[in-house]
Amino acid sequence: xxxxxxxxxxxxxxxxxxxxxxxxxxxxSFKLNFQTGFDxxxxxxxxxxxPRSDSWHEHFSWSDDSSEIVGVSAIGRATVNRLKMNQPxxxxxxxxxxxxxxxxxxxxxxxxxxxx
Length: 116
Ligand SMILES: [Zn+2]
Fold this sequence. Notes:
This protein is α+β, with helices and mostly antiparallel strands and 116 residues long. It has four helices and six strands; from the N terminus they run ββαββαββαα. A two-stranded antiparallel ribbon has the order 1-2. A two-stranded antiparallel ribbon has the order 3-4. It has a two-stranded antiparallel sheet with strand order 5-6.
């Protein structure tokens, strides 16, 4: 995992806790300095999921076999697209993790709404 600036430094994002999140190397390598992704349903550029203020379950779910992350909102779909969250290597990894019982993660919700 790496530390990601949610709002990129190049866009004025500060290196403060409220603007940092943990990201896997793969997602981080595709997020780069982007703050939007393409939502295939609305055909619009849409802001990315904000891991500190958005609720994971409002924007994503798992496929039936838990191998794919499914965007269930414009923000979710745009984020899955931008971060290429369902690359073949990730599907293989999730299937292997599932065999060991370590996937899907329980109660994935890092947004502030989970702390209410
Ligand atoms: Zn990732």
